[in-house]
């Protein structure tokens, strides 16, 4: 008698597990509008994407958008590095806009360039090879902690 309820629970669990995506990404990354309003477009190169700047955005906002895209669309692990491929400047795909291009799949040359940089503290988007972990870039999105008086 006890076997029947156990089999019913096992069958229900197995059917639910079939609904949960397994493994890596099951679809190609697509353009998104981040929580802070930046548009991010895949460039067509594996792991590479363009972050469009909004008026007044600094490097932190572009790194935030890069971290959000790397997590949500590329399913990058928190310790995966995001590298700056093309510094902030005119967008190659959107005339009249400013952007920066990032990747989570750096070429050996780009990775070596990033490795040669000293410890990075500034969230700049001017030096090719600048890189941060996905979690670091994404954590920039968080508002500062408001400490009560």
TrEMBL record:
Cleavable signal peptide: 1-17
Keywords carried by this UniProt record: Signal
Name under which the protein is recorded: Lipoprotein
Lineage start: Bacteria, Pseudomonadati, Pseudomonadota, Alphaproteobacteria, Rhodobacterales
């Amino acid at each position: 008698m006890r076997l029947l309820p156990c089999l019913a629970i096992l069958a229900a669990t197995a059917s639910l597990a079939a609904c949960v995506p397994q493994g890596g990404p099951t679809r190609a990354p697509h353009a998104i509008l981040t929580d802070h309003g930046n548009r991010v477009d895949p460039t067509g190169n594996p792991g590479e994407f363009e972050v469009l700047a909004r008026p007044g955005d600094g490097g932190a906002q572009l790194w935030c958008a890069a971290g959000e895209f790397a997590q949500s669309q590329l399913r990058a692990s928190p310790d995966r590095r995001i590298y700056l491929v093309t510094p902030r400047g005119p967008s190659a795909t959107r005339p009249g806009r400013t952007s920066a291009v990032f990747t989570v799949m750096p070429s050996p040359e780009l990775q070596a360039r990033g490795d040669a940089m000293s410890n990075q503290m500034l969230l700049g988007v001017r030096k090719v090879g600048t890189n941060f972990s996905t979690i670091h870039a994404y954590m920039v999105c968080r508002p500062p902690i408001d400490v009560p008086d």
